[in-house]
Design brief:
It is a single chain. By secondary structure, the protein is of the alpha/beta class. It has 3 domains: about 160 residues, AICAR transformylase, duplication domain (Cytidine Deaminase, domain 2); about 130 residues, AICAR transformylase, duplication domain (Cytidine Deaminase, domain 2), CATH 3.40.140; about 45 residues, Helix Hairpins, CATH 1.10.287. About 35% of the residues lie in helices and about 20% in strands. The chain contains 14 helices and 15 strands. A 6-stranded mixed β-sheet has the order 3-8-7-6-4-5. A 5-stranded mixed β-sheet has the order 12-11-13-14-15, with helices on both faces. Helix 5 links the parallel strand 6 and strand 7. Helix 3 runs parallel beside helix 5. The two termini are about 30 Å apart.
Length: about 400
Protein backbone atom coordinates (compact mmCIF):
# COMPACT_ATOMS: atom_id res chain seq x y z
CA UNK A 1 0.00 0.00 0.00
CA UNK A 2 1.42 3.39 -1.02
CA UNK A 3 -1.13 5.66 0.68
CA UNK A 4 -3.77 5.65 3.38
CA UNK A 5 -6.71 8.03 3.66
CA UNK A 6 -7.31 9.49 7.12
CA UNK A 7 -10.52 10.81 8.66
CA UNK A 8 -8.97 14.27 9.10
CA UNK A 9 -5.70 15.97 10.02
CA UNK A 10 -4.72 17.48 13.38
CA UNK A 11 -8.26 18.89 13.71
CA UNK A 12 -11.64 17.85 12.25
CA UNK A 13 -11.72 20.87 9.93
CA UNK A 14 -8.43 19.88 8.27
CA UNK A 15 -9.54 17.83 5.30
CA UNK A 16 -8.59 16.02 3.17
CA UNK A 17 -5.93 14.07 5.03
CA UNK A 18 -3.77 11.09 4.19
CA UNK A 19 -0.34 9.53 4.60
CA UNK A 20 1.57 8.30 1.57
CA UNK A 21 4.97 7.17 0.35
CA UNK A 22 6.72 8.96 -2.49
CA UNK A 23 8.67 5.78 -3.11
CA UNK A 24 7.99 2.23 -1.96
CA UNK A 25 5.25 0.90 0.29
CA UNK A 26 3.97 2.19 3.63
CA UNK A 27 6.11 0.33 6.20
CA UNK A 28 3.29 -0.57 8.57
CA UNK A 29 0.04 -2.51 8.53
CA UNK A 30 -3.09 -1.62 10.47
CA UNK A 31 -4.33 -4.85 12.06
CA UNK A 32 -7.26 -3.26 13.89
CA UNK A 33 -8.91 0.14 14.18
CA UNK A 34 -8.49 3.27 12.08
CA UNK A 35 -5.58 5.44 13.28
CA UNK A 36 -5.70 9.20 12.81
CA UNK A 37 -3.14 11.80 11.83
CA UNK A 38 -1.84 12.45 15.36
CA UNK A 39 -1.97 8.73 16.19
CA UNK A 40 0.46 8.03 13.36
CA UNK A 41 2.76 10.89 14.33
CA UNK A 42 2.93 9.44 17.86
CA UNK A 43 3.33 5.88 16.58
CA UNK A 44 6.19 6.58 14.17
CA UNK A 45 8.09 8.84 16.58
CA UNK A 46 7.59 6.36 19.40
CA UNK A 47 8.74 3.43 17.28
CA UNK A 48 12.02 5.18 16.50
CA UNK A 49 12.55 5.86 20.20
CA UNK A 50 12.03 2.28 21.38
CA UNK A 51 14.01 0.87 18.48
CA UNK A 52 16.99 2.99 19.52
CA UNK A 53 16.56 2.18 23.22
CA UNK A 54 16.66 -1.54 22.39
CA UNK A 55 19.76 -1.09 20.23
CA UNK A 56 21.54 0.98 22.89
CA UNK A 57 20.73 -1.15 25.94
CA UNK A 58 19.96 -4.62 24.59
CA UNK A 59 16.73 -4.59 26.61
CA UNK A 60 13.09 -4.54 25.45
CA UNK A 61 11.77 -0.99 25.48
CA UNK A 62 8.44 0.81 25.56
CA UNK A 63 7.24 4.38 25.38
CA UNK A 64 3.96 6.17 26.05
CA UNK A 65 3.40 9.09 23.63
CA UNK A 66 1.04 12.06 23.87
CA UNK A 67 0.93 14.92 21.37
CA UNK A 68 4.18 13.93 19.65
CA UNK A 69 6.28 13.79 22.83
CA UNK A 70 6.88 10.88 25.21
CA UNK A 71 5.12 10.94 28.57
CA UNK A 72 7.26 7.99 29.62
CA UNK A 73 9.95 5.67 28.26
CA UNK A 74 11.65 2.67 29.82
CA UNK A 75 13.54 -0.56 29.34
CA UNK A 76 12.46 -3.94 30.65
CA UNK A 77 14.05 -4.19 34.08
CA UNK A 78 12.19 -6.08 36.83
CA UNK A 79 9.67 -4.21 38.96
CA UNK A 80 10.00 -3.91 42.71
CA UNK A 81 6.94 -4.62 44.84
CA UNK A 82 6.55 -0.87 45.39
CA UNK A 83 6.63 -0.11 41.66
CA UNK A 84 4.09 -2.86 41.03
CA UNK A 85 1.84 -1.20 43.59
CA UNK A 86 2.10 2.36 42.24
CA UNK A 87 1.78 1.12 38.65
CA UNK A 88 -1.25 -0.98 39.66
CA UNK A 89 0.16 -4.18 38.14
CA UNK A 90 -2.21 -7.08 38.63
CA UNK A 91 -0.52 -9.98 40.45
CA UNK A 92 -2.35 -12.43 38.18
CA UNK A 93 -0.29 -11.25 35.17
CA UNK A 94 2.89 -13.25 34.56
CA UNK A 95 5.18 -10.31 33.83
CA UNK A 96 7.76 -10.42 31.03
CA UNK A 97 10.63 -8.00 30.29
CA UNK A 98 8.50 -6.23 27.65
CA UNK A 99 5.56 -5.98 30.06
CA UNK A 100 7.91 -4.51 32.67
CA UNK A 101 9.06 -1.92 30.15
CA UNK A 102 5.49 -0.92 29.33
CA UNK A 103 4.42 -0.79 32.99
CA UNK A 104 7.34 1.56 33.67
CA UNK A 105 6.71 3.74 30.62
CA UNK A 106 3.00 4.06 31.33
CA UNK A 107 3.33 4.33 35.10
CA UNK A 108 5.90 7.12 35.39
CA UNK A 109 3.45 9.93 34.58
CA UNK A 110 0.00 8.37 34.58
CA UNK A 111 -1.74 11.73 34.26
CA UNK A 112 0.06 12.56 31.01
CA UNK A 113 -0.20 9.00 29.68
CA UNK A 114 -4.01 8.97 29.83
CA UNK A 115 -5.15 8.33 26.24
CA UNK A 116 -1.62 7.65 24.98
CA UNK A 117 -0.23 5.86 21.95
CA UNK A 118 2.10 3.00 22.87
CA UNK A 119 5.25 1.88 21.08
CA UNK A 120 6.98 -1.45 21.78
CA UNK A 121 10.41 -2.55 20.61
CA UNK A 122 9.57 -6.27 20.58
CA UNK A 123 6.72 -8.56 19.59
CA UNK A 124 3.82 -7.77 21.90
CA UNK A 125 3.20 -10.72 24.22
CA UNK A 126 0.16 -11.72 26.27
CA UNK A 127 1.34 -10.05 29.50
CA UNK A 128 1.95 -6.71 27.79
CA UNK A 129 -1.43 -6.89 26.05
CA UNK A 130 -3.11 -7.61 29.39
CA UNK A 131 -1.58 -4.44 30.84
CA UNK A 132 -2.60 -2.38 27.81
CA UNK A 133 -6.15 -3.73 27.98
CA UNK A 134 -6.68 -2.11 31.39
CA UNK A 135 -5.57 1.39 30.39
CA UNK A 136 -7.22 4.23 28.45
CA UNK A 137 -5.15 4.34 25.28
CA UNK A 138 -5.54 5.19 21.59
CA UNK A 139 -3.39 2.43 20.15
CA UNK A 140 -0.15 0.50 19.97
CA UNK A 141 2.62 -0.07 17.42
CA UNK A 142 5.00 -3.02 17.56
CA UNK A 143 6.98 -5.23 15.17
CA UNK A 144 4.53 -8.08 15.78
CA UNK A 145 1.94 -9.63 18.09
CA UNK A 146 1.46 -13.11 19.46
CA UNK A 147 -1.93 -14.65 18.72
CA UNK A 148 -3.01 -14.27 22.35
CA UNK A 149 -1.90 -10.65 22.48
CA UNK A 150 -3.67 -9.74 19.25
CA UNK A 151 -6.89 -11.34 20.41
CA UNK A 152 -6.79 -9.33 23.66
CA UNK A 153 -6.06 -6.05 21.87
CA UNK A 154 -8.72 -6.56 19.22
CA UNK A 155 -11.27 -6.81 22.01
CA UNK A 156 -10.42 -3.34 23.31
CA UNK A 157 -12.76 -0.40 22.50
CA UNK A 158 -15.36 -2.77 21.10
CA UNK A 159 -12.98 -3.87 18.38
CA UNK A 160 -11.92 -0.37 17.34
CA UNK A 161 -8.59 -0.15 19.17
CA UNK A 162 -5.70 0.85 16.89
CA UNK A 163 -3.21 -1.99 16.48
CA UNK A 164 -0.34 -1.32 14.06
CA UNK A 165 2.43 -3.66 12.96
CA UNK A 166 5.63 -1.94 11.83
CA UNK A 167 8.19 -3.52 9.53
CA UNK A 168 11.27 -3.70 11.78
CA UNK A 169 13.56 -3.86 8.76
CA UNK A 170 12.26 -0.66 7.19
CA UNK A 171 14.95 1.96 6.59
CA UNK A 172 13.69 5.48 5.80
CA UNK A 173 15.25 7.74 3.18
CA UNK A 174 18.22 9.75 4.46
CA UNK A 175 16.50 13.03 3.55
CA UNK A 176 13.23 14.09 5.21
CA UNK A 177 10.82 16.83 4.19
CA UNK A 178 7.78 18.64 5.55
CA UNK A 179 5.72 21.63 4.52
CA UNK A 180 4.82 24.70 6.55
CA UNK A 181 2.62 27.39 5.00
CA UNK A 182 3.27 25.99 1.56
CA UNK A 183 7.04 26.06 2.03
CA UNK A 184 8.91 22.76 1.88
CA UNK A 185 11.62 22.16 4.48
CA UNK A 186 14.31 19.57 3.85
CA UNK A 187 17.00 18.13 6.12
CA UNK A 188 19.06 15.03 6.67
CA UNK A 189 17.52 12.62 9.17
CA UNK A 190 18.99 12.70 12.67
CA UNK A 191 20.83 9.40 12.51
CA UNK A 192 23.08 10.16 15.48
CA UNK A 193 23.92 6.96 17.35
CA UNK A 194 23.70 7.49 21.08
CA UNK A 195 26.01 5.20 23.07
CA UNK A 196 28.43 5.38 25.99
CA UNK A 197 31.13 6.94 23.79
CA UNK A 198 29.00 10.09 23.78
CA UNK A 199 29.50 10.31 27.54
CA UNK A 200 33.31 10.15 27.54
CA UNK A 201 33.97 13.89 27.97
CA UNK A 202 33.36 14.29 31.70
CA UNK A 203 34.09 17.93 32.59
CA UNK A 204 33.48 17.92 36.34
CA UNK A 205 35.78 17.08 39.24
CA UNK A 206 33.84 13.87 39.77
CA UNK A 207 34.65 11.63 36.81
CA UNK A 208 33.31 8.20 37.67
CA UNK A 209 29.98 6.92 36.38
CA UNK A 210 28.64 3.43 36.92
CA UNK A 211 27.38 1.32 34.03
CA UNK A 212 23.85 1.81 35.35
CA UNK A 213 24.27 5.59 35.38
CA UNK A 214 25.57 5.54 31.81
CA UNK A 215 22.60 3.40 30.79
CA UNK A 216 20.20 5.88 32.36
CA UNK A 217 21.92 8.81 30.64
CA UNK A 218 21.58 7.03 27.28
CA UNK A 219 17.88 6.49 27.99
CA UNK A 220 17.54 10.21 28.77
CA UNK A 221 19.32 11.31 25.60
CA UNK A 222 17.45 8.92 23.31
CA UNK A 223 14.16 10.01 24.85
CA UNK A 224 15.09 13.66 24.26
CA UNK A 225 15.90 12.92 20.63
CA UNK A 226 12.16 12.36 20.08
CA UNK A 227 10.79 14.97 22.49
CA UNK A 228 9.57 18.38 21.33
CA UNK A 229 12.21 20.96 22.29
CA UNK A 230 13.22 22.53 24.56
CA UNK A 231 13.34 19.41 26.70
CA UNK A 232 15.04 17.71 29.63
CA UNK A 233 14.58 14.19 30.98
CA UNK A 234 15.12 12.70 34.45
CA UNK A 235 15.82 8.94 34.51
CA UNK A 236 16.16 6.46 37.36
CA UNK A 237 16.66 2.68 37.27
CA UNK A 238 16.02 2.32 33.54
CA UNK A 239 12.99 4.55 33.13
CA UNK A 240 12.16 8.18 32.55
CA UNK A 241 10.54 9.59 35.68
CA UNK A 242 10.09 13.17 34.52
CA UNK A 243 10.04 14.68 31.02
CA UNK A 244 9.77 18.41 30.40
CA UNK A 245 8.86 19.06 26.77
CA UNK A 246 8.22 22.01 24.50
CA UNK A 247 9.15 24.82 26.88
CA UNK A 248 10.65 28.08 25.66
CA UNK A 249 12.95 28.33 28.69
CA UNK A 250 15.46 25.69 29.77
CA UNK A 251 14.86 26.28 33.47
CA UNK A 252 11.12 25.81 32.94
CA UNK A 253 11.89 22.44 31.32
CA UNK A 254 14.03 21.49 34.29
CA UNK A 255 11.37 22.56 36.78
CA UNK A 256 8.52 20.87 34.90
CA UNK A 257 10.37 17.58 34.54
CA UNK A 258 11.68 17.83 38.10
CA UNK A 259 8.19 18.32 39.45
CA UNK A 260 7.05 15.21 37.56
CA UNK A 261 10.00 13.25 38.96
CA UNK A 262 9.07 14.43 42.44
CA UNK A 263 5.47 13.31 41.99
CA UNK A 264 6.71 9.88 40.84
CA UNK A 265 8.78 9.57 44.01
CA UNK A 266 6.06 10.93 46.31
CA UNK A 267 3.66 8.27 44.99
CA UNK A 268 5.97 5.73 46.66
CA UNK A 269 5.71 7.36 50.09
CA UNK A 270 3.89 5.41 52.84
CA UNK A 271 1.24 8.14 53.05
CA UNK A 272 0.26 7.51 49.43
CA UNK A 273 0.71 3.75 49.40
CA UNK A 274 -1.63 3.56 52.38
CA UNK A 275 -4.54 5.38 50.73
CA UNK A 276 -7.73 3.30 50.90
CA UNK A 277 -9.92 3.91 47.87
CA UNK A 278 -13.60 3.15 47.70
CA UNK A 279 -14.55 -0.02 45.87
CA UNK A 280 -15.16 0.35 42.16
CA UNK A 281 -13.32 3.64 41.70
CA UNK A 282 -12.17 4.09 38.11
CA UNK A 283 -8.45 4.03 37.39
CA UNK A 284 -8.40 7.58 36.06
CA UNK A 285 -10.33 8.90 39.07
CA UNK A 286 -7.89 7.17 41.42
CA UNK A 287 -4.90 8.63 39.52
CA UNK A 288 -6.41 12.11 39.62
CA UNK A 289 -7.09 11.80 43.34
CA UNK A 290 -3.48 10.83 44.07
CA UNK A 291 -2.21 13.73 41.99
CA UNK A 292 -4.39 16.20 43.88
CA UNK A 293 -3.65 14.64 47.29
CA UNK A 294 0.09 15.35 46.97
CA UNK A 295 -0.45 18.83 45.49
CA UNK A 296 -1.23 22.21 47.04
CA UNK A 297 -4.90 21.61 46.21
CA UNK A 298 -5.17 18.59 48.54
CA UNK A 299 -8.33 19.92 50.20
CA UNK A 300 -10.17 19.34 46.92
CA UNK A 301 -10.11 15.63 47.79
CA UNK A 302 -9.99 15.88 51.61
CA UNK A 303 -12.86 18.30 52.23
CA UNK A 304 -15.98 16.92 53.89
CA UNK A 305 -18.37 15.75 51.21
CA UNK A 306 -15.51 15.11 48.78
CA UNK A 307 -13.29 12.52 50.44
CA UNK A 308 -16.18 10.13 51.08
CA UNK A 309 -16.60 9.66 47.31
CA UNK A 310 -12.95 8.67 46.92
CA UNK A 311 -11.61 7.11 50.10
CA UNK A 312 -12.92 4.53 52.55
CA UNK A 313 -11.07 6.32 55.35
CA UNK A 314 -10.25 10.04 55.34
CA UNK A 315 -6.46 10.36 54.87
CA UNK A 316 -4.31 12.66 56.92
CA UNK A 317 -2.78 15.63 55.12
CA UNK A 318 0.57 14.77 53.52
CA UNK A 319 2.34 17.85 54.86
CA UNK A 320 5.04 19.81 53.05
CA UNK A 321 7.52 18.88 55.78
CA UNK A 322 6.75 15.18 55.31
CA UNK A 323 7.01 15.51 51.55
CA UNK A 324 10.36 17.29 51.79
CA UNK A 325 11.74 14.59 54.08
CA UNK A 326 10.62 11.88 51.67
CA UNK A 327 11.98 13.66 48.58
CA UNK A 328 15.40 13.88 50.20
CA UNK A 329 15.57 10.07 50.05
CA UNK A 330 15.50 10.05 46.24
CA UNK A 331 19.05 9.73 44.91
CA UNK A 332 21.08 8.52 41.92
CA UNK A 333 18.87 10.16 39.30
CA UNK A 334 20.28 10.88 35.82
CA UNK A 335 19.47 14.05 33.89
CA UNK A 336 19.76 14.71 30.17
CA UNK A 337 19.21 17.95 28.27
CA UNK A 338 18.69 18.38 24.53
CA UNK A 339 20.73 21.64 24.53
CA UNK A 340 23.17 23.32 26.87
CA UNK A 341 22.26 24.56 30.33
CA UNK A 342 22.74 28.35 30.19
CA UNK A 343 22.88 28.87 33.96
CA UNK A 344 23.67 26.95 37.13
CA UNK A 345 20.08 27.38 38.34
CA UNK A 346 19.16 24.27 36.33
CA UNK A 347 21.65 22.25 38.35
CA UNK A 348 20.33 23.73 41.60
CA UNK A 349 16.82 22.57 40.66
CA UNK A 350 17.99 19.16 39.45
CA UNK A 351 19.75 18.47 42.75
CA UNK A 352 16.43 18.80 44.59
CA UNK A 353 15.13 15.80 42.61
CA UNK A 354 18.10 13.55 43.40
CA UNK A 355 20.22 14.11 40.28
CA UNK A 356 23.83 12.89 40.56
CA UNK A 357 24.87 12.50 36.88
CA UNK A 358 24.17 14.75 33.90
CA UNK A 359 24.63 14.67 30.13
CA UNK A 360 24.25 17.82 28.04
CA UNK A 361 25.86 19.27 24.91
CA UNK A 362 27.82 22.05 26.61
CA UNK A 363 28.80 25.19 24.72
CA UNK A 364 27.23 27.91 26.86
CA UNK A 365 29.23 31.04 27.61
CA UNK A 366 28.45 30.17 31.24
CA UNK A 367 29.68 26.58 31.12
CA UNK A 368 32.11 27.45 33.93
CA UNK A 369 29.20 28.42 36.20
CA UNK A 370 27.32 25.22 35.36
CA UNK A 371 30.41 23.07 36.00
CA UNK A 372 31.11 24.92 39.26
CA UNK A 373 27.57 24.24 40.46
CA UNK A 374 27.93 20.53 39.63
CA UNK A 375 31.21 20.41 41.53
CA UNK A 376 29.55 22.05 44.53
CA UNK A 377 27.11 19.13 44.74
CA UNK A 378 29.54 16.37 43.78
CA UNK A 379 27.82 15.62 40.46
CA UNK A 380 29.44 14.09 37.39
CA UNK A 381 28.59 15.81 34.08
CA UNK A 382 29.42 14.86 30.51
CA UNK A 383 29.53 17.28 27.61
CA UNK A 384 28.27 15.37 24.58
CA UNK A 385 28.92 18.17 22.09
CA UNK A 386 25.70 17.19 20.30
CA UNK A 387 22.40 19.09 20.33
CA UNK A 388 19.21 17.01 20.12
CA UNK A 389 16.49 19.46 19.06
CA UNK A 390 13.32 17.89 17.66
CA UNK A 391 10.46 19.84 16.06
Amino acid sequence: MKEMELKYGCNPNQKPSKVFMEEGEIPFTVLCGKPGYINLLDALNGWQLVKELKEATGLPAATSFKHVSPAGAAVGLPLSDTLKQIYFVDDTIEMTPLANAYARARGADRMSSFGDFISLSDVCDKATAQLIAKEVSDGVIAPGYTEEALEILKGKRNGNYNVIQIDPDYVPAPIERKQVYGVTFEQGRNELKIDTDLLSNVVTDKKDMTDEQKRDLMIALITLKYTQSNSVCYVKDGQAIGIGAGQQSRIHCTRLAGNKADIWWLRQAPQVLGLQFVDGIKRADRDNAIDVYISDEYMDVLADGAWEKIFKVKPAVFTKEEQKAWLEKNTDVALGSDAFFPFGDNIERARKSGVTVIAQPGGSIRDDNVIETCNKFGMAMSFTGIRLFHH
